[in-house]
Amino acid sequence: MLCPYCKQEMIKGNLIGTNGYFVYWLPKEYYSKHAFLPITKKKVKDEGGVIIHTNYLTAAPDYFYVCRNCKKMISDIN
Ligand SMILES: [Zn+2]
Fold first, then answer.
1. pLDDT at site 77
2. 62 CA distance to ligand 1 centroid (A)?
3. How far is the CA of 11 from the centre of ligand 1 (A)?
4. What are residue 47's DSSP bridge partners?
5. How far is the CA of 34 from the centre of ligand 1 (A)?
6. What domain count does the chain have?
7. 70 lies in a domain?
8. Which pLDDT value is given to residue 54?
9. Does residue 54 fall inside a structural domain?
10. Angle (nearest 5°) at CA 43 between 45 and 14
11. Domain coverage including residue 55
12. Taking 90 as the threshold, does the pLDDT of residue 21 lie above it?
């Protein structure tokens, strides 16, 4: 995959969570409304978050593409 910013080849890899359960993305405004991070997948989705990786033990890992030149990461989300 070519980087949409600089057009150089991106490097394919995986994102790995430290607790082995799941990794997620949250919109920035979440932090201004809540004191604690969501701990369930349902709560992440209810707050507009995106589950990035859900089942590393049984499913093939999702791929992420990194551009080292632009310091960008791109992947498909569900
Ligand atoms: Zn780039």
1. 76
2. 20
3. 10
4. none
5. 34
6. 1
7. yes
8. 57
9. yes
10. 55
11. 11-74
12. no
Q: Give the separation between CA 26 and CA 52, rounded to whole angstroms.
A: 10
Res. 18: pLDDT tops 60: no
Query: Do residues 77 and 22 lie in contact, with contact meaning Cβ atoms separated by under 8 Å?
Result: no
Separation of 10 CA from ligand 1 center, angstroms?
7
Residue 3 located in a structural domain: no
Structure confidence at residue 24 (pLDDT)? 83
How far away, in angstroms, is 29 Cα from ligand 1 center?
27
Beta-strand (E) ranges in 1-78?
Answer: 11-14, 23-25, 50-53, 63-67, 72-74
Q: Does 5 fall in a domain?
A: no
**Ligand 1 center to 55 CA (angstroms):** 29
Compute, in angstroms, the gap from residue 70 CA to the centroid of ligand 1: 4
Give pLDDT, residue 35.
93
Residue type, 62: D
pLDDT over 70 (residue 45) = yes
